[in-house]
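BUG: 3D viewer hangs when loading the predicted structure for this chain

Environment: internal workstation, default settings.
Expected: structure renders.
Actual: progress bar stalls at 90%.

Input used:
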Amino acid sequence: MGGSNRLVYITIVLLLSSSISWFLVETAAEGDPPPVVLSYCFNTPFFEVTETENGVFTQVKLQGLPLTSEEGKPCLPVKPLRILLPFATDVEKISVAASNTRVLRLTHPVELGGKPYCLSKGFNGSQEKVVSFYDEHRLYPVGVYRNLGVQYWRGCPILHLNLYPVQYLGETQTVYCHKSFKVTVELKKTLANPLYRGNNLDKVMNMVENPWVLNLYPPSSNGSQRYEYVLITTEDLMNSSGEYTFNDLLSYRSSEGLNCTYKTVESIVEEFEGVDTQEKIRNFIKHAYLSWGTTWVLLGGDVEKVPIRMLADIDGLEKDETMVASDLYYQCLDGSYNYDGDRLWGEEFDGVNGGRIDIYAEVYVGRAPVDDEWDVSAFVEKTLVYENSKWGVDEYVSRYLAAGEKLWDGPGGYGAGYVERCIDYCSDYQQETYGVSSSQYSITCLFERDRGWSYLDVMDEINHGVGLINHVGHGTSRYAMKLSTYDILFLNNTNRYGLFYTQACHAGQLEKEDECLAERWVNARKKGGFAAVMNTGYGYGSTTSYDGADNRLAREFFDALYSPYEKLSRLGEANQDSKEDNYWRIDEPNMYHVCYDTLLFGDPYVKVKGAEDAAASFRWQPSYPVTGKTVSFVDESTGVLTYWEWSFGDGKKSHLRNPSHIYLHEGVYHVTLTVVDIYGFSSTITREVEVRNNWPPVAVAIPSYYHGVNLTVFFKGDESWDPDGVITKYHWNFDDGTTSTVPNPLHRFPCEGVYNVRFTVVDDDGYSTTVFCKIVLEHQLPPEIPVITSGSTLVPTGVLFTYESVTVDPENDDIQYRWDWGDGSQVEWSSWYASGEPCSVTHTWRSPGVYEVRVKARDMHHAESNWSQPIIVEVFDNQKPTVFFKKPIQGFYLLNNKVIPFFTTIVVGDVDVEVAAEDSSGIQRVVFHVNNEPAAEVLSEPYKWRWRKTVDDGLVNQYVLKAVVYDNAGNHATDEVTVWRLF
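Structure tokens produced before the viewer hung:
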């Protein structure tokens, strides 16, 4: 929580942290860990009378402390404490003494916490009053503190206590204000947490009440192998051959300085223990975290590829949802998440030794919900496009769309009220957060509270480019912000991809749909966005305020990004921080639910543009500066910057963002750029810029090396260039007594041998540069024709198969192989193999048919063999066809026209029922069903049928429309939609 006045009066005075450390160590050596003792002092609360639809109430406010908000119970100030326990200790006993108590009588009762409510349910707020759910004859809270248990962050035990400086007696409207608190935590020795690895503990220091305890923690003990970033995916997705692959993403991360690797699900299942695949994956992540120092994990696959863990819905209101899908299981690594060993994972006390379930993350996890190579290509491409976009250059990254629908009548009933509290600084409900800056971003608001809007307005905004979206409204697994999965296919926002954050119900329910809305958003090719934060379960608001459980996470998510006190600009860390910052209220309604079901669909390492730390960087033009001529310096720094200072290394300075400068003398100058962002943070970089009176030409001779038998060699020198002029002369000396002055000569050598060819270029100022080419001419035998030694000849489409070939080279040279799969796919030469070493490769056919597979080889001198004898591979189709409803879906249809979008489907009159279907073997037929009864069969596109009213239809009926699609290979697939029909 950024910006809150967290520091009350801690009466422990630390004169010398070393002396405190000595005392603790000496005492511990005697076998009696000393207690942790903290003292606090609070001012008198401030009382504010306010009127709501439920009556006139008193709001109790104290030094910026947040308020409790349990349904039907008094909203009172609370001081959340995070107390770091010494290394290898646990809690033996907690005692909290409150003193200097002042008793005050109020004129009106204390405001009660409101009723939470599901965002997708209709509700008339004016018809329901807040009901008291506490004993008004006893003090509330009953005690002056609440123990929320120990959470472990990377092996550091953090005790969570809530102090209650104010207690309330409802029957007399009396408050008991405690000024002084003394907290004593008695300790006992225990085994050290197995996940302690001892590095990057700065976060703990800034998190806890007693950071000096870190002085007692042992140093880091990481393994020698380091992989900060790990991709977990399947073999077929890792070996996909689309335009973009996971290798492109790993290469980009490596270019940022990360050590990256990947691990396949298949190898994890084989190598790691666990009761199921999910537990094996989690055990591998523990291994990577401890042995490799891993911090960032990308799950590269949909739930069919990288399975998700279903967790118990501890405190969700809706009875039809007892389990929610959650990747929190993969990033919070303490305990087994099933302490009692039953069939329910993630129960409240399934944590370490039967304690509370783990909510603090050791690693940051995101999911790329991809199914095939097209999904992989789209996900990677959009991620890289966003990563390479620049603040101040690419306008779309600074555009923010805030969208709020009408949820219900009465308090808490407009999405606008939730979304607005994620913009700029906000202290409503005593929760201090920093949101998206209105001075930094161009903000567009679509608020039904103020005016109507439709999905067309949303599509128009996205098509113009939006870097950030925050939405509160109705949703289903295929619908949110009035957009359906089908609508996303018609977006036109190529190269302008944004982050979509929504509190809508089930928009991220990836375990239910073949492709839920979140998946379509990140997997759609050339449209949609690069990431999403969406719910796998219901979203929850409040019927008395805009302090709903989901919005608490949303506010802390944006606070993590934009608070000057946090500055957590990476998606994975911000999403997790929103949960940890709300842990103090974990016992309030729906908080476990939202911590579980708020899922990141995207790469957790991505930095949100505009939230980046200031990082100075620059380049200059021309790349080869000349004395007396202008050099243009171009700022390429990240962050939202307000100040630039250049020092050109010759005593001159500038405060322009992109200045120009003229150097008068030759030399190597140290150019320094210092930038400052809107939060006052600075960054400095210094680079060497060499300036000359004249730069020599750059000679480029091709080939630089040639080994072959052909005595005639083509040379190419016209790619040579001069940084500050032009090439005027070319000269080749072929080392055989002959020369040439043309740029690209064709030369025949007199006989075999080794020739050191000398190539010289001269520029218009008379400067020259010379390079050499080594030409080895000798009789060279190619490798023998390779033989395909293994590989299936009857395979299904879409499945990865392995083929092997081998050959030898007469001179025992290393060998490369090139495969022809018969399907037109482009295959480059393989890596190098020793002569006689088998070459193993994989391939997937996408279309059924009969294919000839062959292979050839070449040696290190590029002497190629002939093609091998082909093998015949018959590929059959075992893939289900693709089918989804186009109409009617998620809208109100009147006489066959979609009048307005809606979260369900309502039809008045006759309507066309239409699906989209495709399959590599071709579609044979589509059969439409109404309530499981066949109604029509369509044999060709468009796959459409007019559903007409019959005399048996009533005034209002619910129907299930189902389309069964059969392909030419005998496979079939279905899709269905529930429709309300009115006549």
